[in-house]
From TrEMBL:
Pfam entry (one): p450
Protein name: Cytochrome P450
Topology versus the membrane: Single-pass membrane protein
CDD domains the UniProt entry points to: CYP90-like (cd11043)
InterPro entries for this protein: Cyt_P450, Cyt_P450_CS, Cyt_P450_E_grp-I, Cyt_P450_sf
Entry binding sites for heme: 420
Amino acid sequence: METLYLILCSAPVFLVLYILIFISSNNNLPPGSMGWPIIGETIEFLFGNPEKFVFKRMEKYSPDIFKTNILGEKTVVICGPNGHKFLFSNEQKYFTAFRPHSMQRMFRSYKDPKKAQIQHKREEEAKLLRSPGFLRPEALVHYLAKMDSITQEQMKVHWEGKAQVNAYPLTKTLTLTLACRFFLGIDEPQRITRLVENFDDVTVGMHSLVVNFPGTRFYRATKAANALRRELKSVIQEKKEAMGGGGQMHDILSHMIVAADPSGKHMAEAEIADKIMGLLTAGYSTVATAMAFFIKYVGERPHIYQKVLQEQKEIWGSKKAGELLEWDDISKMKYSWNVVYEVMRFTPPLQGTFREALNDFSYAGYTIPKGWKVYWTVSTTNKNPQYFPEPEKFDPSRYDDISTFPTFTFVPFGGGPRMCPGKEYARLAILTFVHNVVKRFEWELVIPNENIVGDMMPTPEKGLPIRLRSHY
């Protein structure tokens, strides 16, 4: 009891000392609040909606930059198109990628305490994707027909013949099926179904408080990550056996297994499993979210649906029965992709990412110290009427000539050296889904004003139930 009394009496003193020391040692920092000691403003950031969190502080402190403390890190948020440009133009000069502690704990290959080695791992990971060209259009064109056939099969199994479905879980099953086929070279529905729930828990836990006891997000995420790691190690063993038997493999996992660094050393299975888990997570949740919100926003706007339908009719009307989508078909989906752009402006599939300052640097008249974290988000421009007149109006015609946009105002896939390497993969997956769902159905939202929950990943609270009306 005495110890508790002493702690309570001492707390205000420590709080005052914390504030005084912080202010005296950082007198040219951006405006903002560091919140409470240790936890900072993490609670409001995670549970009060990151987008609202940023807008509120831009209005209160500065439209260009403000400081905060989130996820246990001293952080600055650089805002607006100038902020986008500064960040994208100075990768590896002022910034490097940073994974929050929750993510580091789940993806164990990022736990190496030596930052130089961590950065080397991330650079090698990027090379694995870019050097063989897996995600470049010229490589993806050969995967499009398979993507179309998988999407059609998913429609037959989960959508056709149903009066009502929950769209969001089905878009997740579809995107994980596509990602497993593309990244792992496996097409086993039962196995993929088992993975979906684990990936959901990992996605939610990537940006969470590192509180590891039953019932917390982080506990569930860590448990799910361990289960995924075991499953992926099993897949790796099966892949090695198949490759040893002379099987021809054309997937990213096979490349990772045989790829060696300059010293001739191959990656350990645990590291391969971590990298594949990260790639699958990225290729799963964001694409599924974009598909689901396409269903939501187009379902609310029949006139938009009719325009998408007309464009897609022209494409399937020009094809023979049973003929799969080709690259030229995708290039004809201009209006459909404009709709997807507007979907991503309204609800970005990923709210933001983090960087770490490699050195002290100055921006907007303030100094950001080495080691501080930088939070980047698309949301600082997406709803700004200066760049998007009538920002609450869903208007795909905004993108009829995207080259006229002021630079760095619309960056749904990021920019610079760290622009999303899966941009073209995502475009193909989403447009293939749009083609197939519009070809088969009209739909109506069961809950027109369904609540959107989640922090870094927006989620329809009830799974986005829709009533289906088949065209056939």
